[in-house]
Amino acid sequence: MKNVRWLGLGLSILVPTVAMASTLETVQNRDSVRCGVNAAQPGFSSLDDDDQYRGLDTDVCRAIAAAALGDATKVDFVPLDSVERFTALQSGEVDVLSRTTTWTSSRDTTLGMHFTGVSYYDGQAFMVASDLGVQSAKELDGAAVCTQSGTTSELNLSDYFRVNGMTYDPVVFDAPEQSIAGFEAGRCDVLSSDASQLYAQRMQLSDPDMAVVLPEIISKEPLGPAVRQGDDQWFNIVKWSLFAMLNAEELGVSQENVDEQRESEDPDVMRLLGKDGNFGEAMGIEADWAYQIVKQVGNYADMYDRNVGAGSEFNIARGLNGLWNDGGIQYAPPIR
Amino acid sequence: MIHNQTIIEQRPAPSSSVGPVAWLRGNLFNGPINTIFTLIGLYILYLLVVPTVQWAFINANWVGTTRDDCSREGACWVFVNARFTQFIYGLYPRTEIWRANIVFAGFFTLIAWLAIPRLPFKRWVAVFALVGFPVVAYVLLHGGYFDLPRVPTHRWGGLMLTLLLATVGMVGALPIGIVLALGRRSNMPIVKSFCVVFIEFWRGVPLITVLFMASVMLPLFLPSGISVDRLVRALIGLTLFQSAYMAEVIRGGLQAIPKGQEEAAAALGMTYWKRMGLIVLPQALKMMIPGIVNTFISLFKDTTLVMIIGLFDLLGIVQAALSDSRWLGFSLEGYVFAAFMFWIFCFSMSRYSQYLERKLHTGHKR
């Protein structure tokens, strides 16, 4: 009994001190945002020659730091494995998870986390050798298809071919490097994986122009940042950091012209950049939070082009990730 | 004098029985079947070696800074070159690398000092290496004292991290292993059963499970907000895991020592620790050198598993570099470099152990 009482006393000392601090306070006291990222996902999060993380996911982290702390460089990137990423978020090791994580109902409801939005609409696609002259995935009847084992892509693939009344010959590999090597060696006519990964694999071919990615997307893989449940203030900050980038693009405010736009008389721009109203205060952060994001990281288009779009090695078309008024489905609620 | 003229002068053996030609004839071309096999073997060797040398050296690109400097006809060592600092130090801040360099220099100096027999003060150097140096290395690498900026452990990586994990694992596992091996042979039931349970538990689970437990489960048991550094978690897991293996290797050595040795020591009135420390262990450890080094080498290679808990060891940082969009498609070069680095260290350990065996050879070998 005595021991139990001591244990209880010990816990009561430890627990409340920990439970009280909100995530924002923790982040501000630490003066950095801990962001869980992928260690090796080309275009989304990878290390460059100068030890800096580059990619769409890591830029989302920088945007959050710009909003919460006013400085996009104050991010501690924590590389996480796909298994431990959720534990790391739950246990408080990271403040936000931005690690090519697909938003699904089971993850949203059972893992104690909330997805804050969609930073990239991904989906499974097909890559074929360009000299085959195939224009559409509907022409792939009887093809040999390379995939990775143990992923949902295997399942999606068999569903797609069955629904369309086609047959295929699966060639299964363990890792992305192996499947692209198999594709290059002619083991299969088609390589199937998430579109973002296919573009990265295409770059590993000795001649990237020998393969094309077909336009069909056969699964929904919305990727986005996630936070722990139970801290609505932090949830809002992360959510609106991404929305601010989308709104900035929609209003024509970019990293390049943000300082000129700050003098703009457009009420929407004034509200976005903190000239009118105080939307930062409601979240517990500075009024110019969105200005800092656009100034230091850029709007959504800047971020997309730099990492995966026209300004990068991958040159992925905007497609679904275009703004809603530009043929895509990226749509952010207004700031007002 | 007549004798001298009739005796034939001493002459070298005919070239058909000594020298390289005779060796070739005796070993490679003695008979039609062996000749055919030799020729086939040479042809296979030719097929393997020529393209490898062409890829790795003749067609390779050595200088430059970007992927455009590589022709793709041979190896692109530009990639390894551009990433070299990262491969050695991980994400350690570039301005603070001198601290890591001091630790590297101290580490290799101490190892050399202890390994080269002629150098004096072995005992004091060993004490410093085990007690003083870890403190110095920690203060330098981690910082936070004497105005050195703090470098959190998640920025440590590359070869530095691999050596750190392997060294701490080895230095920790050997004494724990010795104690466990002695405990398992003990007559005291509690000590014995504790050691048996410990050894069998840690040997019964794969290392990857231990690391996963340390990185995934442990944080869930701890109250939120309190986290043990993941490098520390990995180090503890690795050390305990290897100490169980080490214990069994040493127990094998202990069993090879005849019981008479210990009984004779007991008859002289020696205490348990004297019997073990002066009579049994010196003989057993000497015989166990191949087994111990075997465990060390496998530990050195096992450190690559920390990659799955998000630590960038040498292999992990190479793999991370392979996914940089500016360097996609150079995985072969990266892996060859990692393999070469691992080979250097494992081979050195192996050579040193053979040297030790020769040095400590007292006629026990057959």
TrEMBL record, chain A:
What is a single Pfam family found in this protein's UniProt entry?
SBP_bac_3
Q: Which PROSITE patterns match?
A: SBP_BACTERIAL_3 (PS01039)
Question: Can you give the residue ranges of the Solute-binding protein family 3/N-terminal domain?
Answer: 32-261
Is Signal one of the keywords?
A: yes
Q: Which InterPro entries match?
A: Bact_solute-bind_prot3, SBP_3_CS, Solute-binding_3/MltF_N
Record protein name field: Amino acid ABC transporter substrate-binding protein
What is one Gene Ontology biological process annotated in the Swiss-Prot or TrEMBL record? amino acid transport
Q: Which organism is it from?
A: Vreelandella nigrificans
- Quote the CDD domains the UniProt record gives: PBP2_BztA
Q: Which domain of life is it from?
A: Bacteria
Q: Which family does it belong to?
A: Belongs to the bacterial solute-binding protein 3 family.
Keyword field: Signal, Transport
Signal peptide start-end: 1-21
From TrEMBL, chain B:
Q: Does the keyword Zinc-finger apply?
A: no
Keywords (alphabetical) are: Amino-acid transport, Cell membrane, Membrane, Transmembrane, Transmembrane helix, Transport
Q: Which PROSITE patterns match?
A: ABC_TM1
The places in or outside the cell where this protein is found are: Cell inner membrane; Cell membrane
Q: Which GO terms describe its molecular function?
A: transmembrane transporter activity
Gene Ontology BP annotations: amino acid transport
The UniProt transmembrane annotation reads 36-62, 98-116, 123-141, 161-182, 194-222, 276-297, 304-322, 334-352
Q: Name one GO cellular component term.
A: ATP-binding cassette (ABC) transporter complex
Record has Transmembrane as a keyword:
yes
Record's InterPro entries? Answer: AA_ABC_transptr_permease_3TM (IPR010065), ArtM/GltK/GlnP/TcyL/YhdX-like (IPR043429), MetI-like (IPR000515), MetI-like_sf (IPR035906)
Q: How does it sit in the membrane?
A: Multi-pass membrane protein
- Of which family is this protein a member? Belongs to the binding-protein-dependent transport system permease family. HisMQ subfamily.
What protein is this chain from? Amino acid ABC transporter permease
Q: Which organism is it from?
A: Vreelandella nigrificans
